[in-house]
Amino acid sequence: MECPDLWEIENSLFAQGCGCLCGVDEAGAGPLAGRVYAGAVILPRGWGHPYLNDSKQVTERRREILYDRICQEAVAWSVAWAEVEEIDRINILRARLLAMERAIQGLSRRPDLALVDGNRSEGITVPCRTVVKGDRKSASIAAASILAKVSRDRYMGEMAAVYPVYGFERHKGYPTQLHYQRLRQYGPCPIHRRTFLKKL
């Protein structure tokens, strides 16, 4: 299945001689609680799916479908994360880049080039190119965003069972009215990002 719009960046790089590239993206930079996750994906050339898009533009049910298809059909894929303690120690920007680097290093095949969502790439140790809003422009980054988002949502579902009073299954740790209300009522739990709460 072809997704010509999403493959424009990759096809241009292939034409320039790039043999193997991955997309990498993160999920969970903005929440008040929980890990930040990253996905890295090497797709077969031309791979596509009607639902493939920036994970924020895809419904939860369709993200789950995409997650399974990507894991089954990708040349290689990896999911990694940075812990809450790391976020508090090194800040969220560095933590999200750390999670991305870990995801790339977790691939079973080393890419010649990584397409990194955003405009920063410090700490990425393979050759890379940043792509602002890349999850809307690149099939590889869009696929990585799906893996990161689904993996983080599943993790927050697990945390909802451990810390049920916060409603993590509903807001996934993001700063919603319900989350603020529960924080005022119960105070922070061990997976809350202390450096984020200082700004409240």
UniProtKB/TrEMBL annotation:
Keywords carried by this UniProt record: Cytoplasm, Endonuclease, Hydrolase, Manganese, Metal-binding, Nuclease
Molecular function as annotated in GO: manganese ion binding; RNA binding; RNA-DNA hybrid ribonuclease activity
Cofactor note: Manganese or magnesium. Binds 1 divalent metal ion per monomer in the absence of substrate. May bind a second metal ion after substrate binding.
Binding-site residues, a divalent metal cation: 25-26, 117
Cofactor: Mg(2+); Mn(2+)
Catalytic activity, EC: 3.1.26.4
Source taxon at top rank: Bacteria
Keyword Metal-binding on entry: yes
UniProt domain RNase H type-2: residue ranges: 19-200
Cross-referenced InterPro entries: RNase_HII, RNase_HII/HIII, RNase_HII/HIII_dom, RNaseH-like_sf, RNaseH_sf
Any single Gene Ontology cellular-component annotation: cytoplasm
GO biological process: DNA replication, removal of RNA primer; mismatch repair
Stored SUPFAM superfamilies: Ribonuclease H-like (SSF53098)
Main subcellular location: cytoplasm
Subcellular location: Cytoplasm
Catalytic activity line of the entry: Endonucleolytic cleavage to 5'-phosphomonoester
Catalytic class of the enzyme: hydrolase
Family stated for the protein in its record: Belongs to the RNase HII family.
Physiological role: Endonuclease that specifically degrades the RNA of RNA-DNA hybrids.
Matches recorded under NCBIfam families: PRK00015.1-3
Protein name in the entry: Ribonuclease HII
Lineage of the species this protein comes from: Bacteria, Bacillati, Bacillota, Clostridia, Eubacteriales
